[in-house]
């Protein structure tokens, strides 16, 4: 670990904030320089295209100075360089970086893919292993597991890393295991699961296709028999949802998830409202969209929703639903069972129980 990775391990640079702070764009990276120690030393901070920070300190002869990296280095000068450099890093962390759930850039990209496509967030369900998380179907069956593992877990990986476990077809397993980044499954059945180290050796598109395959392979028959419950966002800047439902209890909506007829749809109305406002039922799906796609939202197919309930009183606001892990609703996601129970309690809606 380094001074930089210790502080920025789960942080990523925000381009707008980097530029506002004084970073300059240089190719694929952002660069910032500041004189420290009365001007005798120069700190150079670089943030790469993945938002990862790298830093160095140079002396007046433009030679890199490294003594400050030794925590117990002798001499007050090295200690002062270390102190001022760390103060600069902490300032940048607060003003220019945002938290991310995982250490490695590829892990965060893959988690974003799962969230966008399936509406699923990582669930930390192992008390003894807080750095492990699963992605699972609505009925609870896993289709992916992410784990932070220590150095030496895999023979040729000499540092702490993160791995993704997915289920694969047995006939493709051996082909995958000869590819860079793929290993026999860590803590899973090695005949049907594989581990992928999130160090960018395996291509994102390949990993995404394997996630899709794992999702299909673990999707039980019961998933098709029990109606799912979704939370979808609506942006008041683009659509007046209240007016639409005042005119009719039926409306067509963009379909971007695996919604089935009969599924329940909770509509989150974005800021300045910021609340789950309507409960609907999907009464028609896969309706071809025949209009123009020249607006801010791209349509391919539509679903038809029937309004079942209006949630008044702002009881399901952002703060409330965040207590149940529902934040940053950018696309369709499953309704957490505990939040559903809370909605039933708050609005006395036993009739929407999904037996």
**Unreliable stretches covering 5 or more consecutive residues:** 221-225
Give the class from helix and strand content and strand pairing: alpha+beta
Tell me about the biggest sheet?
A: 6 strands, mixed
Which term fits the overall shape? globular
Helix segment count? Answer: 10
Estimate the mean pLDDT confidence: 88
| Percentage of β-strand residues | 25-35%
One letter per element, helices H and strands E, the order comes to: HEHEEEEHEHEEEHEEHHEHEEEEHEH
Strand order of the largest sheet: 13-16-15-14-12-17
Which range best describes the helical content: under 10%, 10-25%, 25-40%, 40-55%, 55-70% or over 70%?
25-40%
Radius of gyration: 25 Å
Number of separate strands:
17
> Span from first to last CA?
50 Å
Describe the structure.
It is built from 10 helices and 17 strands. It has helices spanning 3-8, 15-21, 76-96, 105-118, 170-177, 204-217, 221-225, 241-247, 318-322, 337-347; strands spanning 11-13, 24-26, 29-36, 41-47, 53-58, 97-99, 132-136, 142-149, 161-167, 182-184, 193-197, 229-234, 250-254, 264-269, 275-288, 301-310, 333-334. It has a 6-stranded mixed sheet. Helix 4 (105-118) crosses helix 6. The chain is globular and about 75 Å long.
């Amino acid at each position: 670990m380094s001074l930089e990775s210790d502080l920025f391990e789960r942080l990523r640079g925000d381009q707008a904030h980097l530029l506002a702070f004084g970073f300059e764009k240089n190719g694929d990276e952002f660069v910032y320089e500041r004189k420290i120690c009365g001007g005798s030393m120069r700190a150079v901070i670089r943030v790469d295209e993945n938002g990862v920070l790298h830093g160095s300190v140079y002396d007046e002869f433009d030679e890199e100075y490294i003594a400050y990296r030794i925590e117990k280095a002798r001499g007050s000068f090295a200690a002062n360089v270390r102190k001022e450099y760390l103060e600069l890093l902490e300032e940048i962390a607060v003003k220019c970086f945002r938290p991310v759930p995982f250490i490695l850039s590829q892990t965060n990209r893959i988690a974003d893919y799962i969230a966008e496509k399936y509406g699923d967030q990582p669930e930390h369900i192992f008390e003894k292993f807080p750095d492990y998380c699963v992605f699972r179907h609505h009925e609870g069956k896993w289709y992916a597991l992410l784990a932070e593992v220590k150095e030496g877990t895999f023979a040729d990986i000499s540092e702490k890393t993160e791995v993704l476990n997915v289920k694969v077809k047995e006939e493709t397993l051996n082909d995958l295991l000869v590819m860079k980044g793929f290993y026999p499954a860590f803590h899973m059945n090695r005949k049907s699961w594989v581990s992928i180290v999130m160090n960018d050796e395996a291509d994102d598109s390949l990993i995404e296709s394997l996630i899709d395959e794992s999702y299909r392979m673990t999707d039980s028959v019961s998933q098709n028999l029990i109606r799912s419950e979704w939370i979808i966002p609506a942006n008041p800047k683009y659509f007046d949802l209240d007016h639409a439902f005042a005119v009719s209890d039926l409306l067509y909506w963009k379909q971007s998830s695996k919604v089935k007829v009969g599924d329940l749809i909770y509509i989150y109305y974005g800021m300045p409202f910021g609340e789950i406002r309507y409960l609907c039922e999907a009464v028609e799906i896969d309706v071809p969209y025949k209009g123009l796609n020249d607006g801010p939202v791209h349509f391919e197919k539509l679903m038809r929703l029937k309004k079942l309930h209006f949630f008044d009183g702002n009881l399901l606001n952002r703060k409330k639903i965040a207590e149940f892990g529902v934040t940053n609703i950018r696309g369709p996601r499953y309704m957490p069972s505990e939040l559903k129970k809370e909605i039933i309690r708050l609005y006395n809606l036993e009739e929407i129980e999904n037996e």
